[in-house]
Amino acid sequence: MALTAALQVCEQPGGYNPLVLHGGVGIGKTHLLEGIYRRMRARYPSFRVVFLSAESFANYFTQALRDRTLASFRQRFRGVDVLMVDDVDFLDGKRVIQEEFLHTIRQLESHGRQVALTADRHPRLLTRLSEELVTRFMSGIVCRLESPDVDTRRTIVARKAARLTVRITDEAIEFIVQRFAQSVRELEGALNFLENYGQATGKTINLAVARNVLADLDRDCVRIVRVAEVEQAVCRLFSIGPNELRSPRRNRTVSQPRMLAMYLARKMTQAAYTEIGEHFGGRNHSTVMSAEKRVRTLLEADATVRAGSQEWKLGDLLASLEQQLLTG
Questions:
Q1: What pTM value is reported for the model?
Q2: For the residues 32-46, what does the mean pLDDT come to?
Q3: Could you tell me which residues are beta bridge partners of residue 88?
Q4: How far is residue 310's CA from residue 290's CA, in Å, rounded to a whole number?
Q5: How far apart are CA 278 and CA 289, in angstroms?
C-alpha cells in the first residue's frame, strides 16, 4: 500500500494530499520518502522540491522569528511544488510551530501542490498534535510500513553481504534473517558487527560464529521495561492519571486503559500476575489473566479502541506503545 501510494503521488502530484507514511524506526519510511524525492526531481525537473526533517523546519522557523524574516521563510516553504517532511512526530507538543506548519500545508494544498510526510506512528496517536493538524493529515492517504517479511529480509541481507570485505556463509545469512525481524537497521547493524569481527580475527563468518558474536550484541542491547513505565505510557496516551488507573472505577474510560496496561505489563516486563495486579490497585492475579485474555481476543478480532473522540486499531495502538517502551 505504501509503495503504491508513493508511486501514485509521483504520477499525479497533488492527487493524494497529504501522503503520510508511518511505522516503527528503521523500516524504510525515510528511504521511501527519498525515493519519491528522486523520482520527482527526475520526472519534473522544473518543480521546486524541498525535502527536510521536521526538526529542520522548526529550526528555520525559530531562526526566522529571531531574525524577523518570517516573510522570507514563508515564501521559501509555501512557494514550492512539492514539500516532503520527515519525522513530523517531532512537532508533537510544539504548538506555535504546529500552527505555522498547518498554514504551510493549507497554502500548498489549496494550490494543488504535493505534501508528503513521515511519522513514527499513526496521526491519531500523535496525542499532542492539534486536532486540526491531525484531521488534515487524515484527509489524504495514510499508509503504515510494516516490518520486512522474511523474503524481503533475505534479499536485503544477501545483497548487503555480497558487499562485505569478509566471507559469510549462507547459513550465517539465514540466521541473521531469522533472528532480526523488526527493522532493516537491525539487519545492517548485525552485518556490520560481524564484518568488524571477521576483519579483526580473519575468520569466516559461519553459523557458529554468527550465533556467538551476535549473542554478545544482544546482551549489550537488552532494555528492561518496568511496570511503572508501562503505566506512564498508557496514562500519557489516554490522558488519565496513575491514580485513576489504580482506582476501583470500572467505567470504560478507565477500565479499558487499565486492561491494556495489564496486558503490556505482562508481555513486556518480568513481573508476575500477582505483582501486576498489586501495582494496579491491589487486584488479584485472575483479574490480570482475564485482561490479558481479553486483549488477545480483541487483537484476533482486529478490534478498534476509543480514546476520547478518536478510534484506532488496537494492534496499531499497542505497536506504538511497545515501540515507545523499547526505545525509552
A1: 0.67
A2: 95
A3: none
A4: 25
A5: 13
E strands, the chain, are 19-22, 49-53, 82-86, 114-119, 141-144, 304-307, 310-313
CA pair distance 123, 104, nearest whole angstrom = 18
Residue 244 in grid coordinates = 485513576
Residue with cell 532480526: 180
**In the chain, where the domains are located:** 2-144, 150-221, 227-327
Task: Name 273's Cβ contacts closer than 8 Å, sequence gap at least 6.
Answer: 266, 285, 288, 289
Arch. (CATH architecture) of 150-221: Orthogonal Bundle (1.10)
**How much is the pLDDT for 318?**
86
252: three-class secondary structure by DSSP: helix
Cβ contact 196:160 at 8 Å: no
CATH topology assigned to domain 2-144 = Rossmann fold (3.40.50)
Q: What is the pLDDT of residues 248-266, one digit of tens each?
A: 888 888 888 999 999 999 9
282-325 pLDDT, tens digit each: 999 999 999 999 999 999 988 888 766 667 788 888 887 887 78
Long-range contacts of 218-226 (CB under 8 A, 24+ apart): 223/326, 223/328, 224/269, 224/270, 225/268, 225/269, 225/325, 225/326, 226/269
What's the pLDDT at 26?
81
In this structure, are residues 141 and 42 in contact, taking their beta carbons and an 8 Å threshold? no
Between CA 229 and CA 87 the distance in angstroms is 24
Q: Is 130 exposed, middle or buried (0-12, 13-18, 19+ CB in 10 A)?
A: middle
Class of domain 227-327: mainly alpha
Strand order in the sheet with 141-144: 49-53, 82-86, 114-119, 19-22, 141-144
Q: pLDDT above 90 covers what percent of the chain?
A: 53
Find out whether 86 and 32 touch, Cβ atoms under 8 Å. no
Cβ pair 98, 89 in contact under 8 A: no
